[in-house]
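[Discussion] Sanity-checking designs against the backbone

I'm trying to build intuition for which residues belong where. Below is a C-alpha cell string of 387 positions. I'd appreciate it if someone posts a full sequence so I can compare it with mine line by line.
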C-alpha cells in the first residue's frame, strides 16, 4: 500500500489506511496494525516520510480499536473524533493495548532502542547440554562391534549442595533487583509514545534467585567438571559416521533438571587389505598365470580369518568371486551378513626361465599359435582372453 501526504493535512479514511474492511473485527485490526507498524516504524524504515506514515497508522488504529470512538467515526467521520487521541501515543496506561503490541512487534530489533528480545525467567528445571565424542575404530571393530572403554569430561551435579550452589544449611534467596521475576522492565518515552523495555536481570542472570553463601565444593555453580571412564557397546556393522547416543552422560542439568546425552560419532580407520561397500567386504588377490590357467585351491584372508576358495581353470583377469556370508553384519540384525567380493589379479611374468619357455612354446605349437612379434609373453596374454 502506498501513502501520499499533501503539504496541508487532509483526513483519510482510517479503514483504508489500515487496509481493512469496515466490518473488520478487533483481531483483524490488530493484525493489520502490527504489519504496518513493523513496516513503517522510523527505527526500521529510514525512507523520507516514514515517520508521518507511522503517525497516521497509529491514529487510525487508535480510533478504530476503541468501540466508542469507532462508532462515532462510523457515524460522523473525522468530525466525530476530532478531539479524541492524538497523532502520537498516550502514556502506557492509556494506550489501549499499544504497549503490548509494540513490545511484541519490536522485541526482535536488538539495538533499535526498543530493547532486545524479551526473555522469560528460567526458574524451573533446565536440561543439561548434550556432548559429542569422536571415537576411532579399526576395520574389524566396526564389523563385529564389541565393548569399548572411553574417557569423557562432563559436568556432574555437586554432591555437597545437590545442585543448588548454596552452602549446606542455606538456600538461594529471591533476587531483590527483579523481585524473583528474572526480568527488569524500564519505561522509555520517545516522540512516538512510551515503550516498555524488558531485559534479563543482570543481578541474577534471569534465574530470579541469588546465592549469598556459595557452596565451597562447586563455587556456587551447582556442578563440577568431572573426568570419568565409560564402557560402551559398539553394535556389529557400524560404519563411518554412525552416531551412538549414551543417555544421561552429557552435562548435568540445572535446578534438578535432567542431564543431557552423550553422542559418540564413530570414525572407522582404513584397512590395508579390506574395503567396504555397504555390507559387503571387498579385497583383491593375485594368482600366478599357471594357477589361473590350471585352477587351484587357495586360502583367502577374510574378516573371519582364512577361508578356502576354489579358483576355476581358465580364470580371467579381474574376475570377481564371492564368498557368501563373510561380509559385514547388517546393523540391527547381526544374523544377516553381506558377502566378501574378491577380485582376481593375474601375475604374468616379464621373464621366464628356459625350461618354462620350452614348455610354453610346445603349448603354443599344440594350440597352433606360434609366437609372433609379441613373443612368448604375447602368447601368455592371449590365453587370458580366450576360454
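Best answer:
Here's mine. Compare freely.
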Amino acid at each position: 500500500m502506498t501513502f501520499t501526504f499533501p503539504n496541508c493535512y487532509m483526513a483519510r479514511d482510517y479503514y483504508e489506511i489500515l487496509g481493512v474492511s469496515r466490518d473488520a473485527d478487533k483481531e483483524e485490526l490488530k493484525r493489520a496494525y502490527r504489519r504496518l507498524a513493523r513496516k513503517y516504524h522510523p527505527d526500521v524504515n529510514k525512507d523520507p516520510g516514514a515517520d508521518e506514515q507511522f503517525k497516521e497508522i497509529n491514529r487510525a488504529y487508535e480510533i478504530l480499536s476503541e468501540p466508542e470512538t469507532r462508532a462515532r467515526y462510523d457515524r460522523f467521520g473525522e468530525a466525530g473524533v476530532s478531539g479524541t487521541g492524538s497523532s502520537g501515543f498516550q502514556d502506557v496506561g492509556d494506550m489501549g493495548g499499544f504497549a503490548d503490541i509494540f513490545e511484541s512487534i519490536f522485541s526482535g530489533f536488538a539495538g533499535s532502542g526498543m530493547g532486545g528480545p524479551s526473555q522469560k525467567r528460567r526458574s524451573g528445571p533446565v536440561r543439561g547440554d548434550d556432548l559429542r565424542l569422536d571415537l576411532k575404530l579399526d576395520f574389524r571393530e566396526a564389523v563385529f562391534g564389541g565393548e569399548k572403554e572411553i574417557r569423557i569430561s562432563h559436568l556432574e551435579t555437586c554432591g555437597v549442595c545437590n545442585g543448588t550452589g548454596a552452602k549446606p544449611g542455606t538456600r538461594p534467596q529471591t533476587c531483590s533487583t527483579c523481585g524473583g521475576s528474572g526480568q527488569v522492565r524500564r519505561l522509555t518515552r520517545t516522540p512516538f509514545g512510551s515503550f516498555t523495555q524488558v531485559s534479563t536481570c543482570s543481578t541474577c542472570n534471569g534465574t530470579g534467585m541469588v546465592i549469598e553463601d556459595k557452596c565451597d565444593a562447586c563455587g556456587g555453580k551447582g556442578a563440577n567438571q568431572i573426568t570419568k571412564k565409560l564402557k560402551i557397546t559398539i553394535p556389529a556393522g557400524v560404519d563411518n559416521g554412525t552416531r551412538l547416543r549414551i543417555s544421561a552422560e552429557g552435562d548435568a542439568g540445572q535446578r534438578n533438571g535432567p542431564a543431557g546425552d552423550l553422542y559418540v560419532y564413530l570414525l572407522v580407520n582404513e584397512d590395508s587389505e579390506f574395503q567396504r561397500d555397504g555390507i559387503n567386504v571387498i579385497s583383491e588377490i593375485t594368482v600366478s598365470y599357471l594357477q589361473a590357467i590350471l585352477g587351484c585351491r587357495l586360502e583367502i584372508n577374510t574378516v573371519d580369518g582364512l577361508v578356502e576358495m576354489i579358483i576355476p581353470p581358465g580364470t580371467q583377469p579381474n574376475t570377481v568371486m564371492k564368498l557368501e556370508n563373510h561380509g559385514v553384519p547388517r546393523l540391527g540384525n547381526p544374523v544377516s551378513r553381506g558377502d566378501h567380493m574378491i577380485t582376481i589379479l593375474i601375475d604374468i611374468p616379464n621373464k621366464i626361465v628356459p625350461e618354462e619357455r620350452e614348455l610354453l612354446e610346445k603349448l603354443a605349437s599344440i594350440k597352433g599359435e606360434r609366437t609372433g612379434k609379441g613373443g612368448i609373453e604375447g602368447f601368455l596374454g592371449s590365453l587370458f582372453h580366450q576360454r
